Amino acid sequence: MNTFVRRNKLNIFLLICCLPIFLIAVNLQIINVDGILESNFLSVNSIFAGFLFTSLGIIAGILDKEIIVFLDERGYLDGYINGIVIGLIMHITSAITELMVNNIDMNITLDTEVLINQIVFMFLVAGIVFFIKSLFNILKLIKIIRNQNKK
């Protein structure tokens, strides 16, 4: 367990920070989530999830490189892969929540609608945070491979 925490400390930090920052921003009305469900974030979530799946594909495609095998055997890729998976979970959860609310007949009160709007948007924002993190991680891996190929 200690190894998992050590290898994923940035992912854990981002997860822990996203929720309170988001809640503070909503409560201070910096972020307005009214009417989120009327917007079509399903396609936005799908696009980001697709890019994250592509990032996983890139990592799978470079696993045959000697330096990447070295890093993988020592657990350095765990944080990268887990960050991508967390981002995927965030976007898929947001998309499924939006799909369910928009397509299933439910009697939703105003308070419940506000809560659902916040949940959908929070998962979208958290997913984008992990998308950005995974983008930097993929760029770092590509740089490592390019530097190794120069030798």
* Rounded Rg: 18 Å
Query: Number of DSSP helices?
Result: 6
Instruction: Tell me the fraction of residues in β-strands, as a range.
Output: under 5%
Q: What's the structural domain tally?
A: 1
Tell me the total number of β-strands.
0
Overall SS class: mainly alpha
Shape: elongated
Question: What share of residues is helical?
Answer: over 70%
Instruction: Indicate the low-confidence ranges by residue numbers.
Output: none
* Elements, N to C (H/E): HHHHHH
CA-CA gap between termini: 36 Å
Mean pLDDT: 84
Major sheet size, sense and barrel closure: none
Would you mind describing this structure in some detail?
The protein is mainly alpha-helical and 151 residues long. The protein has six helices and no strands. The protein has one domain. It has helices at residues 2-7, 9-27, 41-61, 66-73, 76-103, 110-150. Helix 3 packs parallel to helix 6 (110-150) and helix 5 (76-103) runs antiparallel to helix 6 (110-150). It is elongated, with a radius of gyration of 18 Å.
Which terms summarize this structure?
elongated, single chain, mainly alpha, 81% helix, 6 helices, 151 residues
List the helices and strands and how they pair.
Blueprint (H helix, E strand, L loop, with lengths): L1 H6 L1 H19 L13 H21 L4 H8 L2 H28 L6 H41 L1
Helix pairs in contact: 2-6, 3-5, 3-6, 5-6
